[in-house]
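Now for a typical sample entry:
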Amino acid sequence: MSIVRFDELKAVPWKNGLGITREIAVEPPGATMDDFLWRVSIADVDTASPFSRFPGIDRTIVLLDGDGFTMTLDGEREHALTTPCVPFAFPGEAQVDVALAGGATRDFNLMVRRGKAGGAVDVVHGPNRLSVDDAALLYVARGTAVIDGLAVGQGDTFLTPRSIELHVDSVALLVRIALHDA
């Protein structure tokens, strides 16, 4: 069991240098942007900067805080990421331009190497009790929880949770990863 506290995460520049991200977990441990199977991070978006491109990567983004932004994918399709805790999946090779809906935002990101793994972000609302055996991690987006007998708070992540108790008005993001046979 392992708790990753938000305030312990190191802020590093985006791949394109136009923003900040905090890596929560990566598989395999120590993997780089070129060889990870999957990666989960929290990003701060405070300018209308384009997203970094990740060819061959399936991405899922979830607004955590702020007014959000509108994403324009490949100059054609728009998606308003303005409602907190609603996942949106898109291909990493897409050219993504951003128009902020207000001020700075914070978002949750899952990246999975296409063909090697699949991933999903499920939103779980409290009060709720559940047992899981296939989760890579649980991120507490709002409120508090008890996971495998340990108290966790907003912004904390629990790696490989089994027993989850979300408290009233809590919201969590449950990440499931399935590795594909080589």
